[in-house]
Specification:
This protein is an alpha/beta fold. About 40% of the residues lie in helices and about 30% in strands.
Length: about 290
């Protein structure tokens, strides 16, 4: 059995295990590493769930999700809109902050939320309604919470520190204008999903870009360079700096007391043979 067939079998088994009967009409094909999903599902949420499950198995491998949402006996737009509103209320979504419009089975969500997770919860709830072909969110996430980027980053890192399954020192959190980027490693695919959900629940977060990698897929060379960089920083009194290496690029994060310490950390890691570049997100805490 070649690599494509092994991946295809693994994905098919995972879909059947997690989606049960909903996976009966889903076909999986892998050609030269590219994953193709075809077939039919009853609601949009099942199409999105299938893609999420494939990512748990295959990570960032190319994916063509061509699943079709069943359109037989679709209810009228006004009935779909009423069903979406009811579903949102059932999920605890405040309809005073989020409005719903439906046209030809396409749901448009408008309004504001305190966090990206609230917007995602509304979008996912709407996608579970029969007759919904697509959900377009025009919701302004994070608009009900006025937090600066540093506060958002600190809050996410604090949440990660208290999450039992996450190795906080292997995750770097970067925030720019409320958009959070997660970088680093996790031990399992489900930890990758957990980190994204936890970060998205922090007030002020407008979006989460999840670039976390599962440790199983990390290159041995990157792991060796990461360990070398950590040892060097620790021996130089910079153990507070977090570092990991992906494809030769060293990502630095954490807090130091001075600009000189930030520059020193970058210079030390840059000098390691095999390091191709530096992404320095170290924060200087001025007192």
């Amino acid at each position: 059995m070649n690599q494509d067939n092994r991946l295809q079998e693994k994905i098919t088994w995972h879909l059947q295990e997690k989606m049960n009967l909903s996976a009966e009409d889903i076909n999986v094909r892998v050609v030269k590493g590219k994953i193709q999903l075809s077939g039919c599902v009853d609601v949009l949420a099942e199409k999105e769930r299938a893609e999420e499950l494939v990512r748990e198995v295959a990570g960032a491998e190319p994916l063509d999700n061509s699943l079709t949402v069943v359109t037989e006996n679709v209810p009228a737009d006004k009935d779909v809109e009423a069903a979406v509103r009811e579903r949102l209320l059932r999920h605890g979504i405040d309809l005073g902050h989020i409005g719903v419009k439906v046209s030809n089975g396409v749901v448009v969500l408008v309004g504001k939320t305190a966090s990206w997770a609230e917007e995602e919860a509304a979008r996912q709830a709407a996608s579970q309604v029969y007759g919904v072909k697509e959900v377009i969110s025009q919701v302004e996430a994070g608009a009900l919470a006025d937090w600066d980027d540093a506060t958002i980053t600190n809050s996410i890192e604090d949440v990660f520190a208290h999450a039992e399954t996450l190795a906080n020192h292997d995750i770097v959190t970067q925030t720019r204008a409320g958009v959070v980027t997660l970088l680093g490693w996790v031990n399992r695919p489900e930890d990758r999903t957990t980190a994204e959900k936890l970060a998205g629940q922090v007030p002020g977060v407008k979006k989460v870009r999840n670039h976390l990698r599962v440790r199983e897929g990390a290159r041995n060379g990157d792991i060796a360079l990461t360990n070398q960089a950590r040892s060097l920083l620790g021996a130089s009194g910079l153990a507070m700096v977090r570092v990991y290496v992906v494809e030769g690029i060293a990502f630095l994060a954490g807090r130091v007391a001075s600009i000189d310490q930030k520059k020193k950390a970058e210079a030390l890691v840059t000098g390691i043979e095999g390091i191709k570049g530096i992404n320095n997100s170290i924060i200087v805490s001025l007192h």
